[in-house]
Specification:
Blueprint (H helix, E strand, L loop, with lengths): L1 H34 L18 H7 L2 H34 L2 H16 L2 H18 L11 H25 L5 H8 L4 H12 L1 H17 L4 H4 L6 H11 L4 H32 L6 H4 L1 H6 L2 H21 L3 H33 L84
Length: about 450
């Protein structure tokens, strides 16, 4: 009983882990695919607005992105044309030298992979700029061209990637085959073309495809070497930095579709080669019938998939979402009008509550001012001077600082206060002793 419960718990954990793994792996792709068909100007799934295919057209109309795409394709083809022969040459050199020298040469050839792309980009500019100044070239020459510098910078490390692919393939090669061909009278060139090259055919295809992808997606080196130009990767990074829109999701849909079509064709090719190699193709029902044989052929599968993709593209181009967008705009305008009306009503209600009532008598102050109303809000109005409030704390100066003591018609006569401590000088310093006598 305990063993069955443990196996059930382990099975549930494995299922949950698998679901989380695939959700993490394919979740972003699914989300981007859905956002490519939402009419919202920001990539999102909810709230859903209208189904549209206009973002694919917006992607194609982006001149900077399309110009960068053409530049990346040209640079990628050049990188493949240079990196694959260099990688093959390095792999063949490593397979022919002694073991001690092979270790040193391998370390030298593998260094560009370990160098950061930023360092490669800056060093490429500095090196070829020095070469251009050495030969007296101007700033409009090839040594200051962004496409040439990007091609040179990418080849330095992509060739090392291609070399690793060829090294892995050459480890399975039997050198006695070329020795037998040489013994039978073949020249070294013939032995290379007719024995070694067919064996390296899969590695050449893999190295070329890897070099193309590495060149196409490289950013760290390209952002320095391209100078004022743009590749597809740098233009895409600039677009994301300045603000994204669903046209990037449309680009992701195109990349996903191309990848799936290529993977299906490659899988069909591998299965066909396996059947032919084992001899089961002649006994299989799929290959005895001409129709099924053509349908299972990689070329036939490619034609079917491309036809389905073309049909979907045509159906998407015929879809018109203008009516849905017009209705959506009307709905948004109605919502805005309703919100503005509610805001006006709230403002009017606040104004009505803030206006004082004419019949409401003024409320007496519970905290009388000790200054007798001198700082009252209505104290400065002409003819409306407030009466001084009776002081509950009489001044010790006998009213000399009373606000009404300075009025010209109401100046009170000073009352002499008898001194409790008579002056030893008599009345000589009395304030009234200096007045002229009548």
């Amino acid at each position: 009983m305990s063993g069955s419960s443990k196996s059930t718990g382990g099975g549930l954990f494995a299922i949950g882990y698998s679901l989380l793994f695939f959700a993490f792996l394919f979740g972003p792709l699914i989300i981007m695919t859905i956002t490519a068909f939402n009419s919202s100007s920001f990539p999102r799934i909810t709230p859903w607005e209208c189904f549209t295919t206009d973002w694919f057209g917006a992607l194609i109309r982006d001149q900077r992105l399309m110009s960068g795409l053409s530049t990346s394709v040209g640079i990628g083809i050049g990188v493949v044309a240079i990196s694959v022969p260099l990688g093959l040459a390095g792999a063949l050199a490593l397979s022919e030298v002694s073991p001690r020298l092979r270790t040193a040469l391998y370390s030298v050839l593998i260094i560009p992979i370990l160098v950061p792309g930023v360092v490669l980009g800056i060093s490429t500019i500095v090196f070829w700029g020095s070469v251009g100044r050495l030969f007296g070239g101007d700033h409009g020459g090839i040594f200051y061209n962004g496409t040439f510098l990007t091609l040179a910078g990418q080849v330095t490390f992509i060739a090392a990637y291609a070399m690793l692919v060829f090294i892995a393939r050459l480890q399975r090669f039997d050198p006695t085959l070329t020795e037998a061909a040489l013994d039978l009278g073949a020249t070294p060139g013939q032995a290379f073309r007719k024995i070694l090259m067919p064996f390296l055919g899969p590695a050449i295809g893999s190295a070329a495809f890897m070099a193309l992808l590495a060149s196409f997606e490289n950013y760290n080196t390209t952002v320095f070497t391209i100078l004022s130009g743009n590749t597809f990767t740098t233009a895409l990074a600039s677009k994301v930095r300045l603000g994204t829109d669903p046209s990037l999701s449309a680009l992701a849909v195109i990349i996903i579709a191309v990848t799936l079509i290529g993977a299906m064709i490659n899988e069909a090719h591998n299965r066909r080669q396996e059947l032919l190699r084992t001899g089961r193709a002649s006994r299989s029902r799929l290959y005895t019938n001409p129709v099924t044989r053509w349908l299972t052929h990689p070329a036939g599968i490619g034609i079917i998939l491309l036809g389905c993709a073309a049909a979907l593209v045509y159906a998407g181009s015929e879809h018109d979402s203008r009516a849905c967008r017009a209705d959506l705009i009307e709905q948004k305008r109605a919502v805005q009008e309703r919100l503005l009306q509610e805001q006006r009503q709230r403002i009017e209600e606040q104004k009505r509550l803030q206006q004082p009532s004419a019949t409401t008598p003024p409320q007496p102050s519970n905290n009388p001012s000790p200054f007798g109303g001198a700082f009252s809000p209505g104290g400065l109005a002409p003819g409306a001077a407030p009466a001084p409030a009776p002081s509950t704390n009489p001044s010790p100066f006998g009213g000399a600082f009373n606000p009404s003591a300075l009025a010209p018609e109401a100046a009170p006569a000073p009352t002499p206060v008898p001194s409790a401590n008579p002056s030893p000088f008599g009345n000589a310093f009395n304030p009234g002793s200096l007045q002229p006598k009548p």
